[in-house]
Design a protein that fits this description.
Strand content of chain B: under 5%
Structural class of chain B: mainly alpha
Radius of gyration of chain A: 20 Å
Distance between the termini of chain A: 58 Å
Number of strands of chain B: 0
Shape of chain A: globular
Oligomer: heterodimer
Number of strands of chain A: 0
Radius of gyration of chain B: 49 Å
Structural class of chain A: mainly alpha
Largest sheet of chain B: none
CATH superfamily of the largest domain in chain A: RNA polymerase sigma factor, region 2, helix turn helix motif
Helix content of chain A: over 70%
Largest sheet of chain A: none
Shape of chain B: rod-shaped
Number of helices of chain A: 11
Order of helices and strands of chain A: HHHHHHHHHHH
Chain lengths: ~200, ~280
């Protein structure tokens, strides 16, 4: 059965048809959520919420790219989760302020020194960890565009469909995201393989 | 986070779009000329390319579970849980409807049987009357010379009854004279009593009481029975419908209508839900 037929069946309440769509897209949806959220549990929650939300609002799908429509719901679920996280972080920081306990600004911003970074993460690869840390430091709207275009390899047009922003916004956000990531990764320059350390060679 | 060099945003966007092959021919030629002339811009491009490559090299996370939905997740669990109960209720309503229809059929058939048996009963009654008449002939002969006043009195109500009884039975209003009512009841007892011996007992009691006046009285009794016998079909319907039937739907019919309607509604609901689920 093709995708359109499954969508039509699912629109009429056929959960099995919808679940076949879920199986077709869950890997992509989870990958995007994982790169936006930065960790497994939040990514799983956001992905599951997105599929539930997609099933409930399936009647609002009027054709076009189902993939873009679905991934928009995924990115929105991630946005919501990030906002909640930001609120939780703000409130926990307030509590720390009120209790007079100091906090490490570097740790709270998501950056770890080599001493602070857990051994498990070191084992997973410092470079990859550095990239993931830098990605997580990007503002949400930049991060999503970077994940869609650079991590997933979407073209600008599809990224524009997913986040419902004009092409100009995609270009602008992507350029800023790359610039900020580049700056962040320069802080971990010693971790970068030679081919990435072009600055030294060209100076 | 390090801010790095402050390249104009426009140049950053050009470099970024150049990496992705998103520039048109004219923009590309212009940028490539600048890259040859501006080493700083070229270095920026190489760093951005390396950054993009590092993102593309990130491993794909392993999926540790599936995200397929269950009916409970999307609020279909209640319907699914309630479906067997709905199916059972549908079957129950159908069974109740069939039972009620069957009951009505049974009642009407037994009434018809009684009506069919009425002539045979009449014959038996006549035989019994003959027997009684033969036994009491001397008494009848004696009393025939002087007709008892009660005979005349009895004859009139009997004739009236023959006319009034069918009407009263149709109207369902027991406004007959007391004696006519008694006779009606007696006939109903006769028709409702299947055993001939019981009928004989009843008739003996009746004949000894009322028909002892003579042949004329016996004729009156016969008229009485004939009049009532004409109403036998109505009398047979009485258990099913009774007086209420003439005023509107009988309770049985009401029950049939309610269970029938309930069965139809539940069946439609069951079929709809099953269709949507399949």
């Amino acid at each position: 059965m093709d995708e359109n037929a499954l969508i039509q069946e699912a629109k009429h309440g056929d959960l099995d048809s919808f679940n076949r769509l879920v199986l077709a897209y869950e890997r992509l949806a989870y990958h995007i959520a994982y790169r936006i959220m930065g960790e497994k549990q939040s990514a799983e929650d956001a992905t599951q919420d997105a599929f539930i939300s997609a099933y409930r609002s399936l009647k609002s799908f009027r054709g076009g790219s189902f993939r873009s429509w679905l991934l928009r719901i995924v990115t929105n679920a991630c946005y919501d989760e990030l906002r909640k996280r930001k609120r939780r972080l703000a409130s926990s920081l307030d509590e720390l302020d009120e209790s007079g306990i100091g906090f490490d600004s570097e740790a709270s911003s998501g950056l770890f020194t080599d001493q602070q970074r857990p051994d498990r993460e070191v084992e997973q690869g410092e470079l990859r960890q550095a990239i993931e840390d830098c990605l997580e430091l990007l503002p949400g709207e930049y991060r999503i565009v970077a994940v869609l275009v650079d991590v997933q390899g979407f073209d600008y047009m599809e990224a524009s469909e997913v986040i419902k922003k004009p092409l100009g916004t995609i270009k602008s956000r992507l350029a800023r995201a790359r610039s900020q990531l580049r700056d962040c990764l320069q802080g971990s320059r010693e971790l970068l393989p030679g081919k990435y350390r072009l600055e030294d060679e060209t100076r | 986070m390090k801010t790095g060099r402050k390249l104009p945003q426009r140049d950053l966007e050009l470099l970024s779009a150049y990496i992705d092959g998103q520039l048109d021919d004219r923009q590309m030629r212009t940028l490539e000329t600048r890259l040859r002339q501006e080493p700083e811009l070229k270095r920026e491009l190489q760093e951005l390319r390396a950054t993009v490559q590092s993102l593309r090299d990130l491993p794909v996370p392993q999926l540790t579970r599936h995200f397929t939905l269950t009916p409970e997740m999307v609020g279909q669990g209640e319907v699914r849980r309630g479906f067997p109960a709905l199916r059972f209720a549908t079957a129950l309503a159908g069974l109740a409807f069939i039972t009620l229809v069957g009951l009505e059929g049974l009642l009407s058939v037994s009434g018809s049987e009684m009506a069919a048996r009425a002539p045979a009963v009449m014959q038996e009654v006549e035989q019994v009357q003959d027997v009684i008449g033969a036994a009491e002939e001397p008494m009848v002969a004696a009393s025939a010379e002087e007709p008892a006043p009660e005979l005349e009195m009895m004859q009139v109500p009997a004739e009236e009854q023959a006319e009034v009884a069918p009407e009263a039975s149709r109207m369902g209003e027991p406004e007959l004279p007391a004696e006519a009512m008694e006779d009606e009841e007696q006939f109903q007892k006769l028709t409702e009593t299947p055993q001939p011996t019981a009928m004989v007992d009843l008739l003996e009691g009746d004949a000894e009481g009322q028909l002892s006046g003579g042949i004329g009285e016996a004729d009156a009794g016969e008229q009485q029975l004939e009049g009532a016998a004409l109403e036998t079909p109505a009398g047979a319907d009485a258990p099913a419908g009774g007086p209420a039937e003439t005023a509107g739907l009988s309770p049985l019919r009401w029950l049939q209508a309610i269970t029938g309607a309930l069965f139809i509604v539940l069946s439609l609901l069951t079929v709809t839900i099953r269709k949507r689920r399949s």
